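>> Question from a student workshop board

For tomorrow's exercise we were told to take the sequence and the ligand below, predict the bound structure, and bring the output to class. My setup keeps failing. Could a helper post the expected result so I can at least see what it should look like? The ligand is magnesium ion.
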Amino acid sequence: MTAVSVNGDNTPSPNPFFAMPLTRKIIHVDMDAFFASIEQRDRPELHGLPVIVGGSPRSRGVVAACSYEARAFGIHSAMPSVRAHQMCPQAVFLAPRMARYQEVSRQIMALFRRYTTLVEPLSVDEAFLDVTTNLLGEPSATRIAQAIRATIRETTGLTASAGVSYNKFLAKIASGHNKPDGLTVIPPDRAQAFIAALPIGKLYGVGKVTEQKMRQQGIRTGADLLRFSRQELAALFGKSGLFFHDMARGIDCRPVESVRVRKSIGSETTLPKDILDFVRVSTVLFDQVQQVARILAHKKTGGRTLTLKVRYSDFTTITRSCTTPQGFFDAADIVAQLPRLLAATEAGRRPIRLLGITVANLCSEQEARRLRIRQLPLPFPQPRSRNALATTSPELPPHSQTKY
Ligand SMILES: [Mg+2]
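>> Workshop helper replied:
Here is what the output should look like for this input. Compare the format with yours to find the bug.
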């Protein structure tokens, strides 16, 4: 029996292509220069002027948002305000009014919910909408996107750009394709050509560092990415590599999730001094278990996967995880499995600088209760003392239902 999986590499990677619905209709709506547009709307005298929302040019602050008039000067968000002022001395600098932006955001999100119940906000000014089945019974996602843009303009006086496609990443790329006040539709039969022509930096999840790394590999467009196998991209970019591989082929199975779910609950500690002593390692872990258990109880949730993270003094980092159908809901659940994970590390033999415990694959309260009931008759050990953690004894009862 394999005791533990390392970095989850025991999990077979599913072939997402077969799971991908090509018939989904997803819209990504993104407000144009949201903060700055609200300021220009609320103060008509700012119309047509370069408006910058963010830190004062006399501070160390940065640009949070800027109007298209300011963008014409090369100003963009996250740029130091001092620099923005140098580039455009006549720009109007305004302090952000977050409460005001939140108010407009709520108004817009409520508009989205007139069309579908599947709305996933990404931030204050953008959201994914799954309109495959929608509240209007309208078969055309393009017509819905047009209606949404018109409604936003009428009710808020602001403009939005929208992208329509059969998956999230294409819808998002589409919304940015024709900004501001634009609408781009990428139907399934045009996706491949669209991605092939796409500069690599425009791909979802490709930041500056990744882009640089891709360019070093000769990857400049979506078409270049197609030459690399899953294995090659995984070796180069880890988990993201697999996502890039699928994206190049227009595959993205992520559903639009109307409620943002927290994916894991964990506790991590960088130790003030490296620890070699096994008992001391156990003590730190015990505190973390209590902390994680408190959060789980507070959130009335549990998870199916427990992960132990260990960083040795030389910064080598390993993770050991196990997934049980019974799940982890309290300290006892975690403590019952932790010794096995800990035994698969070099704790006690190699100095450790960081320890962490995470419970992932979270399940709802209802689901948790169901699992809990199922768990009760199982002969699980319920260690009560700190010492239980230090035990790495192999004679724990057989966990016949436990998958590793
Ligand atoms: Mg925006």
